Amino acid sequence: MKYFFCGLCLKFANWLKNILIPEICNRLKIQKNKVVFYERFKCGYDCNPKYIAQEILKRKLPYKLIWITGNPKALKAKYPKQIKVIYHHNMFRVLYELATASVWITNFDFNHYFNWGLPKKNEQLYINTWHGSLGIKKVKTFINKNKNSYKINEIKNQFGLVDVFISNSSFETNVYKNAFLFDKTICEFGHPRNDIFFESYLTTSEKNRILKKVRKYKNIHEEKSIVLYAPSFRDDFRTDCFNMDYDVLLDALNSRFQKDFVLALRLHPNMAIQKKNSMKKSDRIFDYTDFDDIQELMYACDVLITDYSSCIFDFMLSRKPAFIYASDIEQYNNERGFFYPLETTPFPIAKNNKEIKEKIIDFDINMYHQNVEKFLHEKGCIEDGLASFRTVNLIEEHIKNFEKQN
After folding, report:
1. Which of 2, 103, 124, 263 has the fewest Cβ atoms surrounding its Cβ within 10 A?
2. Could you tell me the residue ranges of all domains in the chain?
3. pTM for the whole thing?
């Protein structure tokens, strides 16, 4: 009997995704001014989609903005009142919003909805901004374990419906072409989330708001300097590589920069399970893992330390000091691999606590700035604080063309 019901359920699921859902979605009329944002799973109102939405609101464009989130905590976050927030488990509501939107914007892929029968219409514009930036760690087809026909086909399905990728450099454009097997339009606009690091983007009141928000989150006094430690995750979820001595780090920073530092720890969303093991009680260490926007956090911090997170390539645009602490470089390189050696980046590299102390004490800010400029030039980086502006121009153009044709 159980096999009968299992077979019946399977037939029903196939009927849903192959017949009913595509038929209904195709019949739903596109709303010309609707823009749907789908943020990366476990995150909230952040990354490139947030800054595109902010630019739309800044221009007071008459768009209906829908924000789909995979993070239940993000449902309680503070969104602009003009944005309607929907939890992704409300699948049929999500399918409706996507089927009737003129524009889709995401920073990853939401292929599971296509697997459930969601069709993409020719009149819809699908923009993918991705969530990395000049990253060193390999992705998709470049990862050894993905180099088989099954994974290749999966990647083609994930990104085959994307109309436009947003890139910030000639290097990243080549990564999109090869890692995502993408052969359509790639716009080198810069990353909207990185506009925050350019002087012309924020007003004085916005700057003060962000600085106050970051410090108020953990009641950090304004006289304290902040070092952000934002390590990436490991594919096997090992934790022995996170062995930094925070006291050694803070003492070295205090000595080198003659300031009183505290540490803000921000773990990767995939590391939430290790969170308790990574924290220790101290009046100099604060947990910022759940802070809603890492760009704002980086803007307010004075120094950044990570291992393989691409956030360091965002932070470098501020020209503030950044260091790499990676105790498992060889193992990580063998398992996942780098696009280029860590040694070719502008960042001082340490593999243990003794080395991170030495790298900080010997840090040469002038040499670092020279290396940053050289690196950005070599990678063909075009970040200039206008990425949000360019991306919304693209959206406006699409919606205007849609109106003319319909």
Report:
1. 2
2. 21-194+385-405, 220-378
3. 0.91
